[in-house]
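INFO batch 0412 | record 1 of 1 | parsing
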Amino acid sequence: MQHIRDSDRPIEEWREGVRTRMYASAVTGASQLVVFEQWCDPGHGAPRHRHAVEEVLRVLSGQARIFVADDEALVATGESVIVPAGIDHGFVNAGDDVLHTQAILAAPVFEAHYVESDRASYRWLPDARAGESA
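INFO prediction complete | emitting tokens
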């Protein structure tokens, strides 16, 4: 059994206005999933990207405008979006308060390939416990 305490998991700034706490990953002994929460300031979120695996994105509080392929939805507290593997997606905080989300991905290491960005990919490396641009 892996017993994970919030206080043992650091909050990292992944991008300006986006803070992340990783709960389950290869670092904590997970072999098939990543679970993390993010807190996004108004107007901030995740640029369009894709993963090789399926993702569930939940809104814990606030309101997000989520883009999946050519679809777009305003997603509120208590709602989720399932993003198929390999599909471009992203989101932005559409409200005036901090957006709190939870993401679950079917892989033990977080990796994203950005669509419209200066950096081609982002990989959260378990051994370094920090993000690295590739």
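INFO post-check: Confidence is low (pLDDT under 50) at residues 127-134.
INFO record closed
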